[in-house]
Amino acid sequence: MKNEARQSITERDDLFQILEALKQNRKKRNELGELFVEGIESIKQALSSDLVKPEKILFSDYAALSDWGKDLVDGGIFPKAIRVKKELYDELSDKAEPSEIMITLSYHRTKLADVSLPENPFIVIFDRPSDFGNLGSLIRSANSFGVDLFVTHGHCVDLFEPKVIRSSLGAIFHTPVVHEESFDELEAWLLGLKRERNLVVAGTDSGGEESLLDAGLKRPVALILGNEAKGMSVNLKRISDMIVSIPLSGVVNSLNVACAGTILFWQVSRNSRS
């Protein structure tokens, strides 16, 4: 090994407990401004992003690393390279076969007031998401279809939970994301955009009266997705200019939110191009 900043973890010491907390504890991630990433594709996407900064690289067996892994350990982009005892390394991982490396990154949580948007923005608001996989999948789809800002609202899973990052395949490092707990703050921000940009706020619901085929959704738009079980809140419905539904022909009258969101994103992207 060439990296002189290397350390070793051989027991459940303070450093190990910090790493464990970064994985499991939203409060600790917020306090330290640091997040935990595993999964090769997510790591590659993180390292190609300007939104985060490398902090720690973790590995178990240096000799078993690929050339890519050794280059990351030795390359100096991580201030700390840490060898972790295999049993503890496996314990840190959520995967049956852990990635050859895991990393931590420092980041800054953005607020709505700090976001810079294009003249005709495409915004997605996910109300109280409760499932890591759905949230990560929707961020991945949002990145694919040119969403400018992805907002989570209310009491919900953390945007930077490792399972969300992995489900997004690292797309979270290339799409601006914001969490806004307060409805009043979110409403004031949206009303400002409606005045300044002629933004349309479109809610979504399987029982919505406006068919996606006829709604003509395009930029500038804020598209609201509801909680997986409860749908959109009453307050978000109240401030929506329309409630859109996806026309279905099957016996089941609703879609998983990640599937529905992807269809909606595609339609907005298509309408905006044409």
Can you walk me through this structure?
With 274 residues, this protein is an alpha/beta fold. It is 37% helix and 21% strand. It has a seven-stranded parallel sheet, sandwiched between helices. The termini are far apart.
What brief labels describe this structure?
11 helices, 21% strand, 2 domains, alpha/beta, seven-stranded parallel β-sheet, single chain, Alpha/beta knot, 274 residues, 60s Ribosomal Protein L30, Chain: A, five-stranded mixed β-sheet
Helix fraction, binned, reads 25-40%
Strand line-up of the largest beta sheet: 8-7-6-11-9-12-10
The total count of strands amounts to 12
Using the CA coordinates, give the radius of gyration.
21 Å
Largest sheet: 7 strands, parallel
CATH architecture of the largest domain: 3-Layer(aba) Sandwich
CATH H level, superfamily name of the largest domain? SPOUT methyltransferase, trefoil knot domain
CATH-assigned fold name of the largest domain:
Alpha/beta knot
Number of domains: 2
- Unreliable stretches covering 5 or more consecutive residues: none
From the spread of the alpha carbons, the general shape counts as: elongated
Give me the secondary-structure topology:
Elements: E1 7-9, H1 14-24, H2 26-32, E2 34-37, H3 40-47, E3 52-59, H4 67-74, E4 80-84, H5 86-92, E5 101-107, E6 122-127, H6 132-144, E7 149-153, H7 162-167, E8 177-180, H8 183-197, E9 200-204, E10 210-211, H9 212-215, E11 221-225, H10 234-239, E12 242-245, H11 257-273
Parallel strand pairs: 1-4, 3-4, 6-7, 6-11, 7-8, 9-11, 9-12, 10-12
Antiparallel strand pairs: 2-5, 3-5
Helix pairs in contact: 6-11
